[in-house]
Task: structure prediction
Amino acid sequence: MNPASITPHIGCSPEDFAKTVLMPGDPLRAKLIAENYLTDAELVNNIRGIQGYTGYYQGKRISVMASGMGMPSIGIYSYELYNMFHVESIIRIGSAGAIHPDLQLYDIVIAQGACTDSNYFQNFKIRGSYAPIADFELLSKAVETCKSRGLRYKLGNILSSDVFYNEGGVQETLQWRKFGVLAVEMEAAALYMNAARAGKKALAICTISDLMENGAVTTAAERQNAFNAMMEVALTIAE
Ligand SMILES: O=P(O)(O)O[C@H]1O[C@H](CO)[C@@H](O)[C@H]1O
Ligand SMILES: O=c1cc[nH]c(=O)[nH]1
Result:
C-alpha cells in the first residue's frame, strides 16, 4: 500500500486504483471478491475499515472497494474516486429489497435508472429534479452477460432510499410499484449523480436479498457470500 493519502477517507495514491472500481456496500464483500476472484490483490485502503483492493481478474486490472451504507457514504467515496483518484467507472454491486412482485430471492436487478427520496441533487444548486441513469455501455454489457449466462434478471428503475426503517413501512415502499420500480436499495442515485457531474461512468447491479411483500430474507452471511452471479457479471463487464 502506498502511504500517501490525499483525502481523509482514502489512504493511497491515484495509481493504486484501476480504472474501474467494483463497489459493494459491505467491506467484507470487497474482501471476499479480492480473495476469491482477484490475483495479486493488494489492500490499497483500509481507512475506517472501508477495504479497497486492487488486483487482476483474467489479466484485467480491477479494484474493489466498499462504499458503506447510504447516499452520504457512497457520495464521499465515489466523489473522491472520480475526481481525485482518476477512476473512470464505478460498478455498484449491492443487495436490494424486491418491490416488483415477480422478483425472487437472488434475482439480479440491473438499475437503468434510480429514483430517490433523497435531497442529494439539491447540492448541485439547479432548480428541478434530475433523472439519474446508468452508463449505457456498462448497462448493455451487463444485460448481454446476464442473458448469455441464463441468469434471472430484470432491467429497469430502482429506488435509492435514505431510510431503511421508514415510518410507513413496507406499504409505503410498495407505492413505487405504481411506477414500475423494481427494488429498493440506498446508494445508486447518488452514485449516478456523482458520475454524471464528473463526466464518468456508473452502473448499479443488485441481488435481491429480501422480498418486501412476503418478508422472505437472506441472512447476513448469505448477503456477504452468495452473490456470486452478480459479482461475476460485474467482473466480466469491468473495462
Ligand atoms: O448490500 P449493500 O451493498 O450494502 O446494499 C444494501 O444493503 C444496505 C442496507 O442493508 C444498504 O447499503 C443497501 O443499499
Ligand atoms: O436498502 C435495502 C436493501 C435490501 N433490502 C431492503 O429492504 N432495503
